[in-house]
Amino acid sequence: MKPESRSRTVAVVGAGVIGLSWARLFAGYGLTVRVVDPRPDLVVPDGVEIAASVAEAVRDADFVQENGPEDLEFKRTLFAELVREAPEHALLLSSSSAIPSTAFTKGIDGSRVLIGHPFNPPHVIPLVEVVPGEQTSEESVTKAVEFYRSLGRTPVVERKEIPGFVGNRLQAALSREAAYLVEQGVVTPQDLDAVVTNSLGIRWATVGPFLGAHLGGGPGGYRHLAEHIGKSMRGLDLGTPSQDPERLIKAVEDAYGSSTYPALAETRDRRQLAVLTALEEN
Ligand SMILES: NC(=O)c1ccc[n+]([C@@H]2O[C@H](COP(=O)([O-])OP(=O)(O)OC[C@H]3O[C@@H](n4cnc5c(N)ncnc54)[C@H](O)[C@@H]3O)[C@@H](O)[C@H]2O)c1
């Protein structure tokens, strides 16, 4: 996991679920990592430094990875400060899940600001969605792609801003139907999870929806699938979950609430790494 260790410095602004995972990845690749977060219970991975302020964290950074709250006003204020305080060559990347960078760079120089959206946890999952805003320079896009590649990630550049980008929009479509099926009493949360992890999850670890469908059509390919099974799928009346999620939340807590977060997260990381290892070996 440590192909190179050039002395690059990265500032991690916001050290919650995502920031701490990024910090772990960056430190694992030998980067100098400086974290800033006002939370009183901040504990950072080995080898990571804690800065007292955003200005101190970014002062000599080559890269800044922002992971603060998913809030437009927060990101607007923070990125104005980052543009002021970080060195001119520093790339300013946001982990934002849904808010495009054009929305929080109005009125400031956004040429080196762009989205570098990971999937949780970024120290394990390879995808980073690289999404330039209206002001982002092409040089910044290239630098972001090189940066994430150098950390063993798989950056995918998305050329048009859309709220939620690509990965979360796909996830939201599936999650919406999952919530509906549980609300309707068709399956329990555990059984729905079992359906996904024993079928779609395994398939999608190796082929995406399009190649999967193309193969599902046999020798006739995507056309055959679309014209035959696809027809019956198009007729499905997909559901909309209720606006009151309380029952659903309780059902999920009943299913998983007795295990601790670290235990569940450790199992998740181990299993995902096993899939990645198996893919590398085959
Ligand atoms: N959780 C996910 O699955 C996930 C996945 C990909 C991207 N993201 C995105 O990453 C970002 C962070 O999400 P998260 O889940 O880690 O949230 P989180 O609530 O776990 O962490 C946010 C952190 O920001 C800190 N913070 C608040 N004000 C700050 C400031 N002024 N300076 C520095 N730090 C400050 C908070 O103390 C907190 O620790 C969001 O934009 C989110 O959309 C989240």
Residue runs with pLDDT of under 50 for 5 or more positions: 1-6
* Widest beta sheet: strand line-up: 3-2-1-4-5-6-7-8
* CATH hierarchy: architecture of the largest domain: 3-Layer(aba) Sandwich
Helix content: 40-55%
How many structural domains are formed by the residues?
2
Tell me what the structure shows.
- With 282 residues, the chain is an alpha/beta fold.
- It has two domains: 9-157, Rossmann fold; 167-281, N-(1-d-carboxylethyl)-l-norvaline Dehydrogenase, domain 2.
- Helices cover 48% and strands 13% of the residues.
- It has an eight-stranded mixed sheet with strand order 3-2-1-4-5-6-7-8, sandwiched between helices.
- Strand 4 (63-66), helix 3 (72-85) and strand 5 (91-94) form a beta-alpha-beta unit.
- Helix 8 (209-216) crosses helix 9.
- The radius of gyration is 21 Å and the shape is globular.
- Residues 1-6 have low confidence and may be disordered.
- Nicotinamide-adenine-dinucleotide binds next to helix 1 and strand 6.
- Residues 13-19, 36-39, 54, 67-70, 95-97, 117-118, 120 line the site of nicotinamide-adenine-dinucleotide.
Topology:
Layout: E1 9-13, H1 17-28, E2 32-36, E3 49-50, H2 54-58, E4 63-66, H3 72-85, E5 91-94, H4 101-104, E6 113-118, E7 127-132, H5 138-150, E8 154-157, H6 167-183, H7 189-204, H8 209-216, H9 221-227, H10 229-234, H11 246-256, H12 261-281
Parallel strand pairs: 1-2, 1-4, 2-3, 4-5, 5-6, 7-8
Antiparallel strand pairs: 6-7
Helix pairs in contact: 8-9
The structure holds nicotinamide-adenine-dinucleotide (NAD).
